């Protein structure tokens, strides 16, 4: 990339100004409005091969999109003598006469102004998903002498945690959070600022990220984090073994509350704010209760941080045999989103016919979080003759490395057949045809042993396909097969394609 511009771009600017670049960058690079994002989703295809991949470029002289990898933008430049194009991923100008990307301070100011405009209208998580560094900035980062290079087989970010006495449940949750990609990027970017750091759990987690990525390999002690959790969640205080799932939800809750000072509530969902915790972990669950007399539907939407999945046999439904216990994560999700007949003993007053009637209830995914967490309910509690008994379910439940949640979405699961659905639109007008609901596994927490003498460990994906087992202070390499054949208690999946808008 040239740092001194080029005569061909200067001649173009002298003749037509910067408005063509401004329009292309606004609509097809930053997409600073809803209209622009819709237009980008519909229009951004190579005019030759109709793909949106392969480094799409827009001609600066006329309305033409062409992919670089297959050479279609090059063919257009040669045929039409239009030698300037805009890279729609980064917003850089490619001059085919110079054979290079060219750097222009005036156009860089335009690009930065539009990124700033986008940042004002979006939350951090949305902006992060929209932003990618320009090639100039990427080049500066690569050449920076103090930049830490993450090479293949690098173990940066891996660090053991000392067990302070039955605190393995804390250690495995911390390992999963530290290796949550967007959470890591947020804290390593030093986004959190707080007037009372000594009392703030978010500040302590920020400090932990710095420690993990400092390059120091000595095991860490989590005494301050434990103290802060105990201060805010009294029933978890002490050195008795606790449930990792309960600790995880309590930790998210405290982190969320400590972020609330800078929280902005979303208008259509007062339970969902724009703090980094909710942006990453919060999804929306839709509950549809259908009256069996008039088919009236009562719908409620509730936020969730995780999905707890039952491992026992499904309850029988009218006219069907009782299914056996699930054997896979997909079985569990199928059961979770299956319509359930509530029975004659649980009649609900229908808001449509205003009488108490039998009904069915169905849970579906209205909105998916960036990080989807599945809690396999392995610890069963039951009462016999006023005595509480506990049992661990050690059944093997298979789970995939790649997971597609599309079959469990509300618009697919609850049988809506109206014209909007057939056209790929949800009831509120949301375009479902561009949504991508594929996830990749990046952490698994296991409970080994019995209820009385159990021990928590974690598998974490450090980068790409490199997996490690975290057993308190001991970190060892693991194979994907080891991960997928483990018992599985908490499963952490990250969305493969992040959308914004």
From TrEMBL:
| This enzyme's EC code(s) | 3.4.19.12
A GO BP entry is: protein deubiquitination
The places in or outside the cell where this protein is found are: Nucleus
Q: Which residues form the UBP-type domain?
A: 24-122
User: Which residues are in the USP domain?
Assistant: 159-496
Instruction: Give the family this protein belongs to, as stated in its UniProt record.
Output: Belongs to the peptidase C19 family. UBP8 subfamily.
Question: PANTHER family in the record, alphabetically?
Answer: UBIQUITIN CARBOXYL-TERMINAL HYDROLASE (PTHR21646), UBIQUITIN CARBOXYL-TERMINAL HYDROLASE 22 (PTHR21646:SF33)
Protein name as catalogued: Ubiquitin carboxyl-terminal hydrolase
Give the species this sequence originates from.
Atta cephalotes
């Amino acid at each position: 990339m040239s740092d001194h511009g080029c005569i061909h771009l200067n001649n173009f600017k002298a003749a037509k100004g910067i408005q063509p670049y401004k329009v292309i960058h606004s609509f097809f690079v930053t997409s600073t409005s809803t209209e622009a994002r819709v237009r980008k989703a519909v229009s951004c295809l190579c005019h030759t091969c109709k793909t949106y991949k392969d480094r799409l470029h827009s001609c600066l002289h006329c309305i033409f999109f062409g992919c670089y990898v297959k050479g279609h933008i090059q063919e257009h430049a040669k045929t039409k003598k239009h030698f300037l194009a805009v890279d729609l991923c980064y917003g850089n100008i490619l001059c085919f006469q110079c054979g290079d990307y060219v750097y222009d301070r005036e156009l860089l100011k335009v690009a930065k102004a539009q990124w700033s405009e986008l940042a004002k209208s979006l939350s951090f998580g949305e902006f992060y998903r929209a932003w990618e560094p320009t090639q100039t900035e990427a080049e500066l980062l690569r050449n920076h002498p103090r930049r830490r290079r993450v090479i293949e087989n690098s173990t940066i970010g891996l660090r053991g945690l000392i067990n302070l006495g039955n605190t393995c449940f804390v250690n495995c949750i911390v390992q999963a959070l530290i290796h949550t990609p967007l959470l890591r990027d947020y804290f390593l970017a030093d986004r959190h600022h707080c007037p009372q750091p000594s009392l703030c759990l978010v500040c302590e987690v920020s400090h932990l990220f710095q420690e993990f990525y400092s390059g120091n390999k000595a095991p860490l002690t989590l005494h301050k984090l434990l103290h802060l959790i105990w201060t805010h969640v009294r029933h978890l205080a002490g050195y008795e073994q606790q449930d990792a799932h309960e600790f995880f939800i309590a930790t998210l809750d405290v982190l969320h509350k400590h972020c609330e000072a800078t929280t902005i509530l979303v208008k259509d969902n007062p339970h969902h704010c724009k703090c980094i915790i909710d942006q990453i972990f919060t999804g929306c669950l839709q509950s549809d209760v259908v009256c069996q007399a008039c088919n009236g539907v009562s719908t409620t939407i509730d936020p969730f941080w995780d999905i707890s999945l039952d491992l026992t046999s499904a309850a029988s439904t009218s006219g069907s045999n009782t299914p056996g216990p699930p054997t896979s994560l997909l079985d569990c999700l199928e059961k979770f989103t299956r319509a359930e007949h509530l029975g004659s003993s649980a009649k609900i007053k229908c808001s449509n016919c205003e009488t108490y009637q039998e009904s069915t209830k169905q849970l579906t995914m209205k909105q998916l979080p960036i990080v989807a967490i599945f809690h396999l309910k392995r610890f069963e509690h039951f009462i016999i003759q006023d005595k509480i008994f506990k049992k661990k379910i050690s059944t093997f439940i298979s789970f995939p490395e790649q997971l597609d949640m599309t079959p469990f979405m509300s618009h697919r699961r609850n049988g809506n057949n109206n014209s909007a659905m057939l056209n790929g639109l949800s009831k509120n007008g949301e375009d479902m045809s561009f949504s991508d609901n594929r996830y990749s596994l990046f952490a698994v927490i296991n409970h080994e042993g019995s209820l009385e003498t159990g021990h928590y460990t974690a598998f974490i994906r450090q980068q790409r396909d490199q997996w490690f087992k975290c057993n308190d202070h001991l970190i060892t390499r693991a194979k994907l097969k080891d991960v997928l054949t483990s018992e599985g208690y908490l499963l952490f999946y990250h969305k493969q394609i992040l959308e914004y808008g």
